[in-house]
Write a structure and sequence with these properties.
- There is one protein chain.
- 21% of the residues are buried.
- The chain has six helices and no strands.
- Helices cover 73% and strands 0% of the residues.
- The N and C termini lie far apart (42 Å).
- By secondary structure, the protein is mainly alpha-helical.
- It is elongated and about 55 Å long.
- Helix 2 packs across helix 3.
Length: 157
């Protein structure tokens, strides 16, 4: 008996995976880009994070050193994750690092009791999960091109 899933064509799944991967990668790239080069730039963003975590609703002020360092790194990591996911280069590593980053960010926003942001991050987690689980469809990527080239002994033809 044929299920509806058995009717899906691999080509369509590859296209759908690629478009979702690129859309998600652009989103992460722009998060990082704006965090680094946007209004106020990175130092101002880091200070805003420090100030925010000094007045958490749980009355547990997070030490500045535990906020400022990650606040400087988050946009840079987001930018790199975005490049990796968009181009499909180091896709697996980019997705796993992204999920780890998302876990850390979720910890922070739940400590701040920002449940709206926490809910939004759950939707990111779903996309990360789909992209990790569907990596067998990552055919239109730099990773796949490198893999094909290596199988041909380094030749393009």
């Amino acid at each position: 008996m044929n299920s509806p899933l058995s009717q899906l064509r691999r080509r369509d799944l590859v296209i759908a995976y690629t478009l979702l991967r690129i859309l998600f990668g652009v989103n992460f790239f722009n998060h990082g880009f704006v965090g680094i080069f946007g209004e106020g730039s990175l130092p101002q963003y880091a200070q805003e994070m420090v100030d925010l975590f000094q007045s958490t609703p749980t009355a547990i002020a997070v030490p500045e050193v535990l906020v400022r360092g990650p606040a400087f790194l988050v946009p840079i990591v987001e930018l790199l994750i975005g490049i990796g996911i968009t181009l499909g280069v180091g896709t697996g590593l980019s997705l796993i690092v992204g999920m780890v980053l998302l876990t850390m960010l979720t910890y922070g926003v739940t400590l701040l009791e920002n449940w709206g942001a926490a809910s939004s991050q759950l939707s990111y987690a779903i996309v990360f999960t789909l992209l990790i689980a569907g990596r067998c469809f990552n055919d239109l990527s730099v990773d796949k091109a490198i893999s094909r080239r290596q199988r041909r002994g380094g030749k393009f033809m």
